Amino acid sequence: MVDPSEPVVLAEQAVIDGLDHWRSLPVAQQPLWPSAESVARASEELSILPPLVFAGEVDILRERLASVARGEAFLLQGGDCAETFAAATANQIRDRVKTILQMAVVLTYGASMPVIKMGRMAGQFAKPRSSETETRGNVTLPAYRGDVVNGYDFTEESRAADPARLVRGYHTAASTLNLIRAFTQGGFADLRQVHSWNQGFARNPANVRYEHMAREIDRAIKFMMACGADFEALKRTEFYTSHEALLMDYERPLTRIDSRTGTPYDTSAHFLWVGERTRQIDGAHIDFLSRVRNPVGVKLGPTTTPRQVLELVDRLDPEREPGRLTFITRMGADRIRDVLPALLEAVSASDATPVWVSDPMHGNGLTTPNGYKTRRFDDVVDEVIGFFEAHRGAGTHPGGIHIELTGDDVTECLGGSEQIDESALATRYESLCDPRLNHMQSLELAFLVAEELGAR
Ligand code: PEP
Ligand code: MN
Which structural domain, as residue segments, surrounds residue 270? Predict the structure, then answer.
């Protein structure tokens, strides 16, 4: 008897076989797990847990990003360099969401466009490292690779990769995402409330520069109220999650075949990106992301060539589908104006329409004489301005910004209106990885970018 479902099953199997093609390719930046059995057990457990996001939401995000690609919207992506399990508390999650919502209101006003809000949240637990090991004094141990792999404490026990952390990462992502959904659907995101927080920021004497724009936004909101805008609808907002798709033993088991379409979605987040260190065109990460339906991103550092960009387009967006592919440039303030124009030109001359986003953080790192890894606020701003200039020159849309930030009052980046200097870094430096803009610096950046967007 012929089973009518057979061809479908065969097709699905082919999809699944393809999904595992990465296993035959070089896989950069993976931990050394204690045993193959222990990681297989953790992967097995992950593979039967419910998806964290629904494929339908992922499709909506792809449409939203398509509007960015068309120049009709702007993307704000922000969050920790490395989320930690300890910092997945209600208050810290709330304050990060709050910071992103506040920035988004300012950017919406500046750009006169919808702003797509996306956290580096609910899964940003794995980090690529430049060295396999870390040495302190005469002790050398495995490098910290993020909470989903090992612990930050500098002991042999803590630094050993532990597959049980994969499952804990999933549960921490689930509870983080649950709270994000509660906040953004339950009234916390009310436009009028978010605006009143921004007024608090602009009333601070250090921020007089931004008072004018805050007042303009206030008038715009009063105008909307007078016109009878539906503020009920503005109590809720879409909010998407994203992280670097680095750890294959986390991403693969959370990838599922969507029953509606028979295609694979990586359900660990709405949007996944490949980092500067794992974007080899023949490597496992690019192959894996080429086979999932999520919108995907690739970080592009200052050595990126036009040819590499076109190859990435062919691998990740062969259908030339707007919203599918985002390039996140992280060149450094001193390189962006030299390197980006040629990349924009090459892509514009092709038939591709990727989203272009500026990560003004990762090309601007420095270490202070007193030993802190930091970034200057002014360099961050300068890279964003260089990014806008390059797009203006090429006639392309500067589609968004990708920021490492926190809602807390940390002292990790230099400058800003609070004028954090080198000696102040010690006061509250909490990042286990890269330095983040604090709450005030993040808002200040939003106001400055909004000015740029308004001046286009
Ligand atoms: C990051 O986003 O934290 C990161 C490691 O970036 P990149 O891959 O651009 O270095
Ligand atoms: Mn980082």
Answer: 29-189+236-454
- Contacts of residue 323, defined as CB under 8 A and 6 or more positions apart, other chains included, come to 61, 62, 63, 64, 65, 66, 67, 68, 69, 295, 355
Q: What is the structure's pLDDT at 16?
A: 78
Ligand 1 mean position to 89 CA, how many Å? 24
We report the CATH number of the domain holding residue 167 as: 3.20.20.70
- Per-residue pLDDT band for 268 (boundaries 50, 70, 90) equals very high
For residues 92-106, average pLDDT: 98
For residue 282, being part of any structural domain is answered with yes
pTM above 0.70? yes
Q: Domain total for the chain?
A: 1
Residues 130, 144: Cα–Cα separation, whole Å: 11
d(CA 163, CA 31): 10
User: Residue 167 is encoded by which pair of tokens?
Assistant: 């499952």
Residue 212 covered by a domain:
no
CA distance linking residue 343 with residue 391, whole number of Å: 11
Average pLDDT over residues 277-299: 98
- Whole-number pLDDT of residue 6: 47
Under 8 Å CB-to-CB from 350, ≥6 apart: which residues? 310, 313
128 lines ligand 1 (CB under 6 A): yes
Q: End-to-end distance of the chain based on CA atoms, in angstroms?
A: 66
Between CA 169 and CA 172 the distance in angstroms is 5
330 lines ligand 1 (CB under 6 A): yes
- Among 1-15, 75-89, 237-251, the minimum mean pLDDT is found in 1-15
Q: Is 339 in the pocket of ligand 1 (CB under 6 A)?
A: no
275 CA to centre of ligand 1 in angstroms: 5
CA 118, 345, 276, 19 torsion-angle sign: positive
CA 376 from centre of chain: 20
Which tens digits make up the pLDDT trace of 160-196? 999 999 999 999 999 999 999 999 999 999 999 999 9
Report CA-CA distances (Å) from 175 to 89, 93, 123, 149. 9, 10, 11, 19
The count of C-alpha atoms lying within 13 angstroms of the C-alpha of 214, restricted to the half-sphere facing its C-beta, is 21
In this prediction, residue 9 carries a pLDDT of 53
Examine residue 242 and state whether it is found in any structural domain, yes or no: yes
What's phi and psi for 386, nearest 5 deg? -60, -40
Is residue 254 assigned to a domain? yes
Give me the amino acid identity at 195: H
**Nearest-atom index, ligand 1, CA of 244:** 2
